[in-house]
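Colleagues,

For the teaching module next term, I've prepared a clean inverse folding example: a structure given as tokens, and then the sequence designed for it. I'd like students to try predicting residues themselves before seeing the answer, so please don't circulate the second half yet.
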């Protein structure tokens, strides 16, 4: 049995990871400021510390006694990073360094952290693999890339073990639809069920590679196991995706169809920093991390609609 800290563990992805670790018999501690996360997302067995990753002392206290850290706390919205540049940067970049440094000072415990497909920007190689040169087109993507650069340097300088998982677009139960900055599937499902019209930013031809949250929690868990099996400093980077792309317009129609609703979406101006095509190569996730994200979009959407 191990004890893990999950920063951002009261959020969407973090709370699914917490459930998975608890089911495995591990102890879970969560550091979360509840800015977008919720106490009710967490099982009673998880310990919740309400605090900010920008507070170095709070992070240090939270890491004490842990065998590893899953760093998921962040402002997860690309659009918000453009609307609130400095505020987002403080959390997504400086906050991450606080967490990495606390892990170092707590005995160089391994760190698995949430990177993002956003680091690839409008890379023209499709499907995109980890060997491509990152070209972020948003502050959010730039901060996630900075996390990777810091982790790579710390792996060498301090002999630390890191895994940076480049999540593509994650969806599933507990993704909070309540903000305009929320993930598209949570917003579309919420609107369709309430008979509200869907809004599409841009043409709707932009694509995303959607991956169900249970697959992401499994990949995070498996990545930590890989780090525990490694003695020397290392930095593993891997896409977390299915290698399938769907356009936002087709997504909107599919959600309406599965919910038995009709109605056409309304089109709005494209968002700044919005990637046009996103489809990842899951080869390294499969081979190096040992997880295949095999929950299809249709099955995932059905599970989500049943849960709602
Ligand atoms: P989320 O908003 O549900 O979770 C983020 C959690 O972090 C929330 O509980 C929030 O309260 C907490 N948090 C935010 N700022 C904090 C701070 N300063 N101190 C402490 N806690 C703070 O979002 P999510 O979708 O679960 O995202 C989790 C991670 O995965 C993030 O790092 C995000 O950037 C990354 N990611 C998400 C996706 C996706 O499609 N959802 C894709 C790629 C990467
Ligand atoms: C998402 C994640 C981000 C992650 C990235 C990885 C969220 C909030 N963002 O960013 O953390 O790093 O994937 O690829 O989880 N859209 C609409 N109508 C809406 C909402 C969105 O048309 O009502 C469009 C957007 O313009 C975009 C697409 O849907 O083209 C996806 O948007 P969004 O869910 O916000 O995700 P990303 O920006 O891809």
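(Answer key — instructors only)
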């Amino acid at each position: 049995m191990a004890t893990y800290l999950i920063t951002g563990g009261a959020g969407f992805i973090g709370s699914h990871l917490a459930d998975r670790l608890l089911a495995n018999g591990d102890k879970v501690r969560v550091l979360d400021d509840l800015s977008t996360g919720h106490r009710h997302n967490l099982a009673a067995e998880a310990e919740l510390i309400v605090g900010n990753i920008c507070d170095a002392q709070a992070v240090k206290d939270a890491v004490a006694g842990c065998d590893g850290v899953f760093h998921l706390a962040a402002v997860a919205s690309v659009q918000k990073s453009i609307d609130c540049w400095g505020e987002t940067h403080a959390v997504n970049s400086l906050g991450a360094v606080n967490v990495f440094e606390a892990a170092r000072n707590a005995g160089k415990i391994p760190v698995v952290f949430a990177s993002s497909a956003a680091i690839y920007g409008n890379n023209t190689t499709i499907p995109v693999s980890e060997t491509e040169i990152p070209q972020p087109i948003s502050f959010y993507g730039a901060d996630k890339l900075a996390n990777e650069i810091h982790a790579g340097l710390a792996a060498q300088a301090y002999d630390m073990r890191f895994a940076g998982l480049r999540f593509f677009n994650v969806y599933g139960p507990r993704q909070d639809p309540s903000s305009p900055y929320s993930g598209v599937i949570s917003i579309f499902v919420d609107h369709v069920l309430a008979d509200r019209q869907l809004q599409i930013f841009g043409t709707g031809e932009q694509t995303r590679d959607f991956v169900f949250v249970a697959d992401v929690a499994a990949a995070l868990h498996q990545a930590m196991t890989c780090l525990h099996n490694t003695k020397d400093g290392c930095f593993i980077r891997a896409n977390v995706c299915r290698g399938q792309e769907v356009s936002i317009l087709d997504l909107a129609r599919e959600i309406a169809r599965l919910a038995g609703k009709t109605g056409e979406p309304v089109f709005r101006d494209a968002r700044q920093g919005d990637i046009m095509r996103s489809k990842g190569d899951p080869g390294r996730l499969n081979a190096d991390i040992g997880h295949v994200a095999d929950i299809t979009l249709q099955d995932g959407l059905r599970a989500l609609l049943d849960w709602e």
